[in-house]
Amino acid sequence: MVSNHPPAAAQEDQFPLVPGDDIVDAEDMLDGMRVGYFEEGFDSVYEYIINNPYSATWMRNDSALLVVFVSDEEDQSNGYFGQVGEFTSWYSTLRFGPVYLSSIVTQDPSVSVCSTPPVPAYVGDRYMEATNAFNGVIVDICAEDWSAGVTDASHQVDPYEWYELTYEPIEDSIRIFIDHVPNNDWTYQASDNTVYFTTIPDAGAWVEIAYRHEETEHLRPPPI
Predict the structure, then answer these.
(1) DSSP state, 213?
(2) Same domain for 173 and 148
(3) 132 and 214: one domain?
């Protein structure tokens, strides 16, 4: 959760929400978020990912990337991305595989579900143009439920059929959990140090792989 104000995004240092967090955690994070005066979503994403050293402590280049813009105004970025195409070209390079966008924004008065027709100048045309460039999901900011759109966006992420491990494991120590439940539908192949799923985890599943490796073994005290 990051401010749409670039200077604030460049200084944000709250750890992101994780599975198990609830609405109170989200509200606390929102309350603790740095704020600013302008809504420049494109430039804020750049500031957070590129110029904020804290983001590098938890963001991983080998994971899928989904950015969800939430704004009741048009994007006003004029620092890095004066044109929408400049943002989409840069954003598309951030991962080895596909990246994803979703927008929860003010829509045109002709289709808006707001009780009062929105001011046309506040319509998030730039956000929606960028989202459409990635075949993303757009939700009206006045919709009663935003969750369906965000869930649909997350389901675009390509399924993981395998994971290459960081270290060479002690093979019989490998344990895999999907949504915190032990799972045995996988095989390990030592030749490429990779776990292959027999049954691919569902979209949005939380996958954890635990194992011991030789470095850990060397830290054990010698037997008496």
Answers:
(1) B
(2) no
(3) no
Of 154, 173, 194, the residue at which a domain comes to its end is 154
Same domain, 86 and 172: no
The 10s digit of each residue's pLDDT in 68-122 is: 999 999 999 999 999 999 999 999 999 866 788 999 999 999 999 999 999 999 9
Radius of gyration of the chain (CA): 21
Is the pLDDT assigned to residue 43 strictly greater than 60?
Answer: yes
**Domain ends where: 106, 121, 154?**
154
**Domain of 101, in residue numbers:** 6-154
Residues 44/35, Cβ–Cβ less than 8 Å = no
Distance between CA atoms of residues 195 and 148, nearest Å: 31
174 pLDDT exceeds 90?
A: yes
